[in-house]
Amino acid sequence: MPSQVSSEQILFTRGVPAAEALPNKLLSECMQAALDGPDGKVILQYGHNGGYLPLRTLISEQYAVSPDQVLVGNGSLHLQDIFAGFLLKPGDVVFVEQPSYDRAIKTFRRRGAKVVGIPLDLDGINLTALEQAIAQQKPVFMYVIPDFQNPAGVTTSAEKRQALVDLAERYDFWLIEDVPYRTLRYAGESLPLLRDLNAERVVTVSSYSKLISPGLRVGYLIGPTALVKQLTKLAEETILAPVLPTQAAVVEFHRRGYYASNLEDLKRLYAPRLQAIVQALKTSLPGVPFAEPEGGFFVSVTLPTDFNTTNLLARAKQSGLLLTDGRDFFADPYTANEDPQQGERFVRLPFCALTPEQIQEGVKRLSTLVQS
Amino acid sequence: MPSQVSSEQILFTRGVPAAEALPNKLLSECMQAALDGPDGKVILQYGHNGGYLPLRTLISEQYAVSPDQVLVGNGSLHLQDIFAGFLLKPGDVVFVEQPSYDRAIKTFRRRGAKVVGIPLDLDGINLTALEQAIAQQKPVFMYVIPDFQNPAGVTTSAEKRQALVDLAERYDFWLIEDVPYRTLRYAGESLPLLRDLNAERVVTVSSYSKLISPGLRVGYLIGPTALVKQLTKLAEETILAPVLPTQAAVVEFHRRGYYASNLEDLKRLYAPRLQAIVQALKTSLPGVPFAEPEGGFFVSVTLPTDFNTTNLLARAKQSGLLLTDGRDFFADPYTANEDPQQGERFVRLPFCALTPEQIQEGVKRLSTLVQS
Hints:
2 copies of one chain form a homodimer.
Chain A: H1 2-7, E1 10-12, H2 24-36, H3 40-44, H4 53-63, E2 70-73, H5 76-87, E3 93-98, H6 102-110, E4 114-121, E5 124-125, H7 127-136, E6 141-144, H8 158-171, E7 174-178, H9 194-197, E8 202-207, E9 219-222, H10 225-239, H11 245-255, H12 258-284, E10 298-302, H13 312-318, E11 321-323, E12 346-350, H14 356-370
Parallel strand pairs in A: 1-11, 3-4, 3-6, 6-7, 7-8
Antiparallel strand pairs in A: 2-9, 4-5, 8-9, 10-12
């Protein structure tokens, strides 16, 4: 009903799953099975400080590593906080893609890092800029989201993946690859994980927030055994143990085959929404370049300088369109050779929690605002 | 069957609930109701970053505060980490009772504090020692467990509670009261919370680990609105949001009246165990003084200097008796006017997860070892 859509508020603010995609019935069944099952007492007691062992084992099989290379915690943001707390001393340098996930940038800063943004091209990090930055100051680690990046929607090319691990090896820094969207691929073929190219230099972080439910807060980290052992000790000192019944429910969700069927349901729901936003951008903002992703949650545009982005957030709100401040995704207000207003012209458009009609209407409103 | 007990290993190592006290069936029912109920989508989505609002509201009613004075997180240890991270700069001083909860001591140290142990008498902190310590260096906060203290089993007297808040007010420091055992009172009457005496100086921390289940990791913190607002922001930056389905299950556990009935079940189970350990100590270690608690999880003894505590942990293990190293509970290896070997002679005896027969046998073994 277009008349409804045209009058309602449209939220392009957060990358959240669609409410209709949250599998309440299945999780309820899994939770019951876990609490009534043979491990029922185990998951209500102290213990399993590195995460519920059957879940660590399940994840280790998926990634072809050993369970002691897996740490499961209460969401991947907290695992990022823990490894940042472990690896960083005040004043240390961390590289992120520019733009990048705003909460990760804040976490590294809170842990004392100087966070440097390396410009992200439509096929991944700008390697020239990265090498220039390394020449200036070597990072302790570089944080990247190689698949369907948040916020830009960019997938790093195979060549750039190889270049990243080569640079990490040559200049001795860690790569943190955050891959929560990777499995949500609606078309095309997956490229290798960074850890597939060099497992000794890479820490992989992911979660079930986009694949089952964010409220469960089940995230995990994979890395070399020695590092994971130290991070597990720090996690234990920080939280004792993660919440266990929800982790047991995730295991049960896999055992019953719900993970696979739920993933197919998600793709069926989200793929047309991705098509809708790509089509809407091409129609309403013709000629504005953007990374056209084959999966994930985000498409983003950087509006041309001759578009009207003055006071955009407030004007959008008046038109019933809620946007996130693009500047939040930029570690540096601006870097040399770059447009200082780039963040202001950057618009992230999470599409999964909106219907194709809402997406179309939202992009139309955006287009009217910026071209007026 | 005494013949079985006399040959089995007895674990006086950790303060864990008895396995038979974990309410799997009831929690399974509550979790199902939460996931199938009107907030089912809410608890699987992002949001409620300061904790599931109905739980914050429930706790706020119990403590007669407003919901924005309550922060609910994934276990109280993490909340201690968050307020320590917020309040402390490297080199700041924190006071703890001596002995105190080992993980709290470690957390404050990791956050940069110099942790000073103030001797604990059988009726609470030694006030003379506390005033002397304040005269030397004012703490940012003092961490106390006023009810059925971990590890000593001490309950702070009414007079000493008043003295603590008076000193905090006069010398301008925070009091952190950790009260996870308070509700598990098997005899006698509760004394006021420190926050009842001065709510502006006190942060109250507690959890459902001992009252429902540790694996749920549902802990909370109560303090002045302005402080809780800042801690909530820091919690959000650190973990985004806590795990929500388990918090919703706790709310449902209250709504259905299970909290009250479960608490009565716990008291019925644990009270005879407390009686058993008190009786066993009086019988097997006559004349050794200890705080005789009216609730909680712990009784502890400091063995006289003429007892044989050399290599006690290893000798106990050979006798099938597992003990925790008493030194872990001492922030300072020794303080002036104190016996330097106090930690070595300190034996914590958590009694809730052992049957009266196991308790009797365990104390008998201990007595044989230290009096030989």
